[in-house]
Amino acid sequence: MDVSTITNTSPFFWGYLGAASSLVFSSFGAGYGTYKSAQGIAEADRDSANNDSFPFKFFIPIIISGVLAIYGLIYSVVALQGSKYWIYFCFFEPSF
User: Is the full-model pTM beyond 0.70?
Assistant: First the structure.
């Protein structure tokens, strides 16, 4: 790959790529975290079959995984809103 290919690429491409990768990686991370914490909850429930009181502290990792996915979504939206602002000023060139 030639270096000029990377330097001639639009910066908006890299911005959209960053926003998309933020959304994808945060969603995959949240899904993996939910999967692993569900395995832990199943193991804890199997070990405490005689005890009827199941502690709700095991649900904290699932909640945190959901927060991680929402954070990635919010970051992607904020990053895309910033790029729309710059696209407007780059192409329409308002004179103030």
Answer: no
Element containing residue 75 per DSSP (H, E)? helix 60-91
C-beta neighbour count of 33 within 10 angstroms: 17
Our count of domains for the chain comes to 1
Distance, C-alpha 41 to centroid of its chain: 24
User: Looking at this protein, which amino acid is placed at residue 66?
Assistant: G
Q: State which residues form the domain around 41.
A: 21-48+60-96
* Tokens encoding 59: 């649900």
In a domain, 9, yes or no: no
Q: DSSP for 27-43?
A: HHHHHHHHHHHHHHHHH
Instruction: Quick: pLDDT tens for 7-51.
Output: 677 777 777 888 888 889 999 999 999 999 888 888 877 766 666
Distances (CA, A) of 31 to 5, 18, 38, 75, 92: 35, 20, 10, 18, 41
